[in-house]
Amino acid sequence: MIEIKKLSRSFGNLVAVDNLDLDVENEIFGLLGPNGAGKSTTVMMLTTLLKPSSGTAKVCGYDIVKESKKVRSKISYVPQDMAVDRKLTGRENVQLYAKLYGIPNRNSKVDEVIEMMGLSERAGDLVATYSGGMRRRLELAQALVHEPEVLFLDEPTLGLDVSGRKKIWEHIRMLKAEGMTIFMTTHYLEEAEKYCNRVAIIDKGRIAVVGSPENLTSSIGENASLNDVFLENVKTPEEQAGFNSNQFRNLLRRR
Ligand SMILES: Nc1ncnc2c1ncn2[C@@H]1O[C@H](COP(=O)(O)OP(=O)(O)OP(=O)(O)O)[C@@H](O)[C@H]1O
């Protein structure tokens, strides 16, 4: 569903994404990495919102630069700060999206996605009265109106309580079961370990490791978690500067 070949993006002298090679099948794929690793930049390129500096990628067989319109018709993107109008009802928000996409039989499609996201009972209420979890599900409903084949999610459970997160994951899994490919970023490694079919850990714009959570954790050792895999593959700022903790302690002692 997604083929990435030597994809790079620089901002001035900073290489945010560095020669990325990655294939994503019909799966729930998690892109993990520390702050500033290049996750959002990657997603922005794949969703055609940002042009690569070099390299190529195809989404659903279409080139993200040369066939960006075709890519857009096949995908949806739910960023962290998606626009939902608090002064409109949930249904009105989804209707707006359906109108923008020119969906035929708009009302039935709107009802269908609202129902899918478990919002039917509250669809007539103003979004200002929604909980964080309901708002996130409304964003997903908006993203579903044009029946995308690939759904990009930027930290879909950020800031939600435990039950809100669980619900979002139930919906994501349901979408996958219906045939959708999910490409997501998250900082919640326990969730990625539990729900993603495969993950990639990216650090300083480069993929450090990619595989299923089971394979990655078992390669580290018995009872290892994805947190351990992450720490093994991502350098701390001190390590990046060439220190290790013992050197740092010795330095402090000498002072
Ligand atoms: N428009 C921009 N102009 C300049 N630098 C940018 C721009 N967008 C991103 N960067 C830089 O590129 C690097 C990668 O940023 P990016 O937002 O992709 O990281 P991230 O992995 O998504 O981080 P986070 O987990 O904090 O969201 C960072 O050093 C960031 O400061």
TrEMBL record:
<dbReference type="GO" id="GO:0016887">
    <property type="term" value="F:ATP hydrolysis activity"/>
</dbReference>
<dbReference type="InterPro" id="IPR003593">
    <property type="entry name" value="AAA+_ATPase"/>
</dbReference>
<dbReference type="Pfam" id="PF00005">
    <property type="entry name" value="ABC_tran"/>
</dbReference>
<keyword id="KW-0547">Nucleotide-binding</keyword>
<keyword id="KW-0067">ATP-binding</keyword>
<dbReference type="InterPro" id="IPR027417">
    <property type="entry name" value="P-loop_NTPase"/>
</dbReference>
<keyword id="KW-1003">Cell membrane</keyword>
<comment type="similarity">
    <text>Belongs to the ABC transporter superfamily. Drug exporter-1 (DrugE1) (TC 3.A.1.105) family.</text>
</comment>
<protein>
    <submittedName>
        <fullName>ABC transporter, ATP-binding protein</fullName>
    </submittedName>
</protein>
<keyword id="KW-1278">Translocase</keyword>
<keyword id="KW-0472">Membrane</keyword>
<dbReference type="GO" id="GO:1900753">
    <property type="term" value="P:doxorubicin transport"/>
</dbReference>
<keyword id="KW-0813">Transport</keyword>
<dbReference type="InterPro" id="IPR005894">
    <property type="entry name" value="DrrA"/>
</dbReference>
<dbReference type="GO" id="GO:0005886">
    <property type="term" value="C:plasma membrane"/>
</dbReference>
<dbReference type="GO" id="GO:0043215">
    <property type="term" value="P:daunorubicin transport"/>
</dbReference>
<dbReference type="InterPro" id="IPR003439">
    <property type="entry name" value="ABC_transporter-like_ATP-bd"/>
</dbReference>
<feature type="domain" description="ABC transporter">
    <location>
        <begin position="2"/>
        <end position="229"/>
    </location>
</feature>
<dbReference type="InterPro" id="IPR017871">
    <property type="entry name" value="ABC_transporter-like_CS"/>
</dbReference>
<dbReference type="GO" id="GO:0005524">
    <property type="term" value="F:ATP binding"/>
</dbReference>
